[in-house]
Every structure is written in structure tokens, then in C-alpha cells.
Design a protein that fits this description.
Layout (H helix, E strand, L loop, with lengths): L1 H31 L17
């Protein structure tokens, strides 16, 4: 049972790493590529004075 437990934990850790990588990649894509296709800075909030 010890080997089975280790294999199960390894599989769970691998799956968690894959999911985390996919989520990170999708978040980076969402932030770096706005819907209109432009890449630039955020709009200015106005004159701070």
C-alpha cells in the first residue's frame, strides 16, 4: 500500500501542477491581450492635481 499511496500522491501533485500552469497561462493571456487586440498601458485616470 505504501507504493500505491506514493503513486497516488505523485499523480495528484502532477495534476495540480498542470492545472496551476494552465490557469496561470490563461490569466497571463487575458491580461496581456485585451479584447480589442491592442497592447498598451492602462488608460490614464486623469490629472492628479
Amino acid at each position: 500500500m505504501d507504493l500505491r499511496d506514493r503513486l497516488l500522491r505523485s499523480a495528484i501533485a502532477t495534476a495540480a501542477a498542470v492545472v496551476a500552469g494552465l490557469l496561470t497561462r490563461s490569466m497571463v493571456k487575458a491580461v496581456s491581450a485585451p479584447e480589442d487586440g491592442t497592447i498598451g498601458s492602462l488608460p490614464h485616470a486623469g490629472d492628479p492635481d
